[in-house]
Amino acid sequence: MRAQQRVVVVAGACGGVGTSTLAALVAAEAARAGAGTALVDVAAHGAGIEVLLGVEGRPGARWRDLDGLRGSIAPADLDGVLPVWRGVEVLGGDRRGGGPPGDALEAVWPALRERCTTVVVDAPVTALDGDVGEVVLAGAPSVLVVTGQDVRGVAAALAALAVLPPAAWAAGAGDPDDSRSAALVLRGRRAPRVAPAEAAGVLGLPLAGVLPTDRGVAEACDRGFGPVVGRRSALARAVARVTRAAGVHPGGTASAGVGARGEAAWGWDGARV
Ligand SMILES: Nc1ncnc2c1ncn2[C@@H]1O[C@H](COP(=O)(O)OP(=O)(O)OP(=O)(O)O)[C@@H](O)[C@H]1O
Ligand SMILES: [Mg+2]
DSSP assignment of 11-23, as one string? Predict the structure, then answer.
């Protein structure tokens, strides 16, 4: 069965909780079976996801190089153009700064979607409030709202939901209980005062997963290897569950995912998270 085409928007409700790391790990998980995968960083600030991945030295286009691009390009026009990390084509900023310039995102987005089975977007919620959001949230993608497992994190996620454009909720428009297109991912805390189910209840989102703290992941990034985690680690298992919950099945089978009303939108099973 052909894998279902899917866009996963990983939306960080607050800074530093591991949104980019999760986006990268979801993309790597999607690429594991060999299906075309792209990771698109749309943050307007920062040094770009390439530093996290350790691919700064690899040749290929970054957003700044696409400045002035308009209209639309063919999928094949991207052949060999983007740097690749663990089988994932990466499009993001670099230390020259800035997110997608001008119309560059609109120009490459259809080509990326056509050439890749899975497109993962790394997006602070603030980057989705505008043109960028309109492009990446069109067509009812899976939206993973990432926040910390504490009171501040839940408050930030509530504020994020208020600014997420209505397109984020397209699949369940008008009825929040019907095939919602967003789910919650918590960056777990030791001895938390906020239970995952409680956070999910306050936010009105299904819980896609809780990411444990992994002692090795930051060090691997600092050493230039990118977010590499042990296959059997608790973080890898949590990422695999979140990836499936987002409708991406690395085995290559079609997925229910998020879609038409009445479909099983999320592989969400409270007992397993
Ligand atoms: N599950 C985790 N366990 C331990 N450290 C983590 C985990 N996830 C991310 N980190 C570390 O936390 C730091 C921030 O991670 P990351 O850049 O992914 O967060 P972010 O939410 O995207 O931040 P920003 O707001 O800057 O975009 C990095 O040093 C990263 O290696
Ligand atoms: Mg980030």
Answer: EESSTTSSHHHHH
